[in-house]
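Quick question: what would this complex look like in 3D?
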Amino acid sequence: MRTNFSEAQLADPEIAEANQILETCVHYGFCTNTCPTYVLTRDENDSPRGRIDLIRRMLEKGGPPDPKTVHHLDRCLSCLSCMTTCAVKVDYVHLIDRARVHIEHHHRRPWPERFLRGLLANVLPYPRRFQWALRGARAAKVLPSMVPSALRASLAMVPEPKRLDTDILAPGVYPAEGQRRKRVAVLAGCAQQVLNGNINRAAIRLLRRHGCDVIVSAGVGCCGSLTLHMGRESDARVSARAAIAAWTREIEAEGLDAIVVNASGCGTTVKDYGHLFARDPGMAEPARCVAALARDVSEILVDLGLAPPAEPKAYRVAYHDPCSMQHGQRVTRHPRELLRAAGFQVMDIPEKHFCCGSAGTYNLLQPDMAERLGQRKADHVASTDPDIVATGNIGCMMQIGQYLGRPVLHTVELLDWATGGPCPPALAGVPLREPAEPNQEPAPDIPVVNDGGGAANDVGVW
Amino acid sequence: MRIQEARIEPFFAEIQASLGSEGINRDPETLRRYGENTMPGGDRSPVGVVYPASTQDAQTIVRAANRHGVPLYPVSTGNNIGLGSRSAVHPGQVIVDLGYRMNRILEVDERLAFAVVEPGVSYQAMYDELVRRGNKLMLDVTSGPPQGGMIGNALDKGAGYTPYFDHFGFACGMEVVLGNGEVLRTGDGALDAGNLINWHTSKYSFGPILDGLFTQSNYGIVTRMGIWLLPRPPAIRSFHFAFPDDDDLEQIIELCRPLKLSNFVPTLFRVCNDLYLCGSEGENPEYRASGGKRSISDEGRRALRESHGVGAWTVSGAFYGPSAEALEPQIKRVRDLFCQSGKARYIAHEEAEGIGPLQVAINTFSGIPSVGELGLLKWRPGGGNTWFLPGTPMDGKIANEFQRVCRKVYEDHGLDYTVMNVCGPRFARGLHVITFNREDEDERRRADDCYRRMSEEVARLGVFVGRAPLDYHEFHMGQAMASFREACSGIKQALDPNGVIAPGRYGIG
């Protein structure tokens, strides 16, 4: 794509980078067919290709963007499905992030939007504040008419107390069981700890069981992901800087083999810290080191090799790939391998490249689009007739759970259960069908896509 | 037919009344995008896009087009990149986008192994559905975009690589809205009855086989089609051979032919040249230095081959069977045969899984849509891409002569010879990729001239193209004998007397 930036504009390294990205887009349009918003609206400006053009015009012009541009860029989920499909590998993620920052700096939103965005940016990354906010929200639910209309959609998302399992971890060391094989830090996260504390508990149990000393480092809070994708890059850098400093202290003290992340949205951001601080001389190197150590929890468990399940539970597990994991980190094989190794029957969900509509704060800021996507995803999940639904990101768990009307579990909760941990609390009281006999068949020879294939398909004609 | 301004508004008013506002898009930005394509001839903006949700909607649109004299241009998913994308033949046509709301899988019969789909159903959607149902059946996929439409590909005579490679050949039973607005059911569906249990299983029903009329034509809009599916085999093992020299193609074709005539090897053979495989892994390393004016050097090609572990030609095929072990003897027989001359280097399935471009081959043999081959489109910058798709008889000498002729034409135009021969028993389709910088006027002209020159050269050697980019439909129809052209026009007159369906497409009407 031809661009038209002035020399002065290109002297700004952020614009220079955006220009470089813009020039790679040649408008093939493969991205349109895998973009959830385009598929729903068929509006070019709701497609990556259309948005790239809007971003080009906005950045070339500089200054305040027009409301239409803001509308269409706000509707982007940053799911990055387009990046998986793009034939010329346009670095869309860094372009849309730059556009969001530009909007944040140059566009004055109507006050209800400003209020909601400010609230989310100042509450969600802080577990204690979020905990209090949820209490307040539950009280407000009693009298919804008293709540400003901008907040009503968010209020509807507030989980019932019985669906919450808050457990805010204190910093500390959780020693390996048996011989130590690795020393790893775990990102305890922010909102996740308030919504579902069992994810961290299960991850830590699993890692310890597999020979890891697990460190929850003091000083690490939010990774910066939530604010980064709202265009609040400075806030994101503050959070990320604190995390990098804390982990760097661990690396320098006793060393770390990995920084384990169990919310894939956060994992994608931590793995990209190198880019976030690329132009910060003091931070670039430590950021790169931390990013290089970052692993999704499923990646580290595959490295460690999952212990054989004590008693395989061959439940049908529909696995949902979070966008941040499949498109951001390209981690799709690991969770499936682990769940299979743990004895579960793993099923792919149709249209798995599609976002569920969670997308960080998207379902709070764009509730209508998020609802359509959430319902669409839930319908696809239900079509696989699963006993259990699993994924690797808290946002997806909450979003799909809401539209599916049943709990969605984190992969580590199932792996922990299969290898000696307790039954995940979310399954308490949930009736499950008797699982099938554990599958004794050899692994299929074809690229594994689902149960089926392999000897199960031998109907005598081969 | 040139659109008349006065006819357009009443047409859209009628569509709006029938389909509602969701059925029309006339937003200028949307129209600009629908007009974009990757071919040398430039973009062609439509005047509107309509989105039917049913066969009845399609019929409403066609009837309104007849009443108001408005030319339509139907697309399924619009992923025919390099052959036309969603761009119409002429500016000012109305795109009928069947991909937005007619994308339902109407039926999957697991016992008789067929599916019935609407035009918007993509390979990925069909694959996902089969996996959801337990992965017992396999569809044949292309190595192109996973979001490509199954019906669109079959009607354009597209193909894959498994035993069900011939997408039109393995389609059965269509529903078509003809250009005159009538709905036609082909094959057993022609029976004037309600319970058509044989529509998508029998091709040999009473009367002429009309289905072929709707391939590479503009006589109607196909709104439903049956697609046959293959039981997914328990084990799939691929094999690959790398050959060092360009002229090894003669030997390769001679080796492949008997293996396909006998059907000893169930898949087609993918015989890819070095650039076809390496091109998906990065940009031409010499492009920037030469400003795109020269073809990549022999040294550059050699370096790419070494870097990616492939040959000047690399042959890929696969066996299906009950287990990997059971397939070993068959692979050994093929291996012995290919390695007899001492030129071939065997690449085993496991090794190939680690070589990106060969993983694409494994995916296609396994009926798994993938995006790997799309990387070919970034071999040169600027987004220009068009395909030249003739074929050769499976005769080594002829195929090699074609190779020399076409390679020279590419080189004469400073472009990079990039080809995959997909080999069946008697015929190999040559998928020639012409990647060029569309933003460079000189390079765009060279690409256009390269295409036309190759078409003339292969015609001189006695071969017609198979599929063709939209820019060249009229040109190719001009290469056909007069009576063929007249027959095509006559059929158009009979089925679409006002010429509303894609006038000019495939050089008809």
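Answer marked as accepted. The domain at 308-451 of chain A is CATH 3.40.50 (Rossmann fold).
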